[in-house]
Amino acid sequence: MLENLDATLLARVQFAFTVSFHIIFPAFSIGLASYLAVLQGLWLWTKQEVYLELFDFWKTIFALAFGMGVVSGIVMSYQFGTNWSVFSDKAGPIIGPLMGYEVLSAFFLEAGFLGVMLFGRNRVGPGLHFFATLMVAFGTLMSATWILAVNSWMQTPVGFAMNDAGQFVPVDWWAIIFNPSFPYRLVHMVLAAYLTTALVVGAVGAYHLLRRTSPLRAGTMFSMAMWMLTIVAPLQILAGDMHGLNTLEHQPVKVMAMEGHYESHPDGAPLILFGLPNPEEKRVDYAVEIPKLSSLILKHDLNAPLDGLDTVPEELHPPVPIVFWSFRIMIAIGFAMFGLGLWSLYCRWRGSLYGSEWLHRSAIVMGPAGFVAVLAGWITTEVGRQPFTVYGHLLTADSVSPIAAPAVATSLIAFIIVYFLIFGAGTFYILRLMSRLPRDPMGDLDEGPIRTAGITPAPQAAKHEEVRHGA
After folding, report:
1. Is residue 260 included in any domain, yes or no?
2. Based on the domain organization, do 87 and 234 belong to the same domain?
3. What is the tally of structural domains in the chain?
4. Residue 406: burial class (beta carbons within 10 Å; 0-12, 13-18, 19+)
5. What gap in Å lies between CA 230 and CA 163, rounded to an integer?
6. What Pfam family is a match for this entry (predicted)?
7. Tens digits of per-residue pLDDT, 85-131?
8. 231 and 278 both lie in a single domain
9. Phi-psi group of 260: left, alpha or beta (phi > 0 → left; psi -120 to 50 → alpha; rest → beta)
10. In a shared domain, residues 42 and 186
11. Which of 206, 221, 380, 402 would staple 360 via disulfide (CB 3.0–4.6 Å)?
12. What is the DSSP letter of 106?
């Protein structure tokens, strides 16, 4: 049975499976590292112990997520040699140095200061410890920068030439690194990491506010997370729109698949909200659409013409149903984040941020949404690039190793079993840690936190002073 399977498809599935596991951990650790730096900075500035307590709580979770991200990422580099050796040979002169820069400038920086951040506060002093935390946060951002430079070059390849062996060789490293899609992809991914972390932190805070186990700590983290969501979600929508316009310029076929435009629209294209893409009939069945809105969004003109997939040879079409739906899942979650942020802002204005149980339940439900959005965005980006690995220059079918389908299938099955066991257990342990927020030293008080992100309700503070002095 395994001999009848396609080795290229299996290799693609294997890489997609491993990178899907991997990407959720960096998406969380990038934002969490910056959150830890903010917490420690607030503690140094305000001397409020709640920030230091939250730092100690989240640093353990960060260490676990960071470790699982490293382990899950190592496996992918081996696949470049086992399943994608032709791609490695042809693109290696460009991909290899960029990956090496990531290890030297980013991963070594993270690993070098991680031990100081986790265990060194009482050994090196608060100032140097804060510096180590900043370096870990900066290292995670640098790591994302180099990896996204690699991926962006594969999406919009520039600054290279082809040698006699058919390899991509660098001509202009500045053009390679700062390729046309890199700035948009970097901003979009970093904001996605911050939103993913904010949703997790907010969900943990909301969970403990509902349980009333630690209102001071829970309220502090919930307030900070909702501020992040309120501010960053609209910025992410704007960044996503700009990234989409860049994609239209450099990868128009991907946008055609995202929009579900099988046919060209010379007088303005509709925005298809929902529907069932039908690749055989080259149409979207049961489409719910808004006339000409796609042209307005993409061209800023209701009557602007937009080309469809009918202008592209069929063998160059990406898998439209996958790209169509993954794009809509990402967009829907993005607007749900924006809505949750507005809801929290309204409750903050009404003074019910810590008492609105429906808001807290909604925040818990939205806790994993950031990971789903990141995966949906990655699927849109990578599947929409097909059938190329290096867009417009190297086909996926020409990138795979000369390896038999049974060998790829066997390793894929092994990866599935091992990954679900190891990373499933790690994720379960992280969730256990999140559910065990220490109780506030003053007990379970119903009024909420004394101070959260710089806001101090005076009557509440007075009430706590009475409790503290035994009044």
Report:
1. no
2. yes
3. 2
4. middle
5. 50
6. Cyt_bd_oxida_I
7. 899 999 989 998 898 888 887 777 877 888 888 888 888 888 898 99
8. no
9. left
10. yes
11. 206
12. I
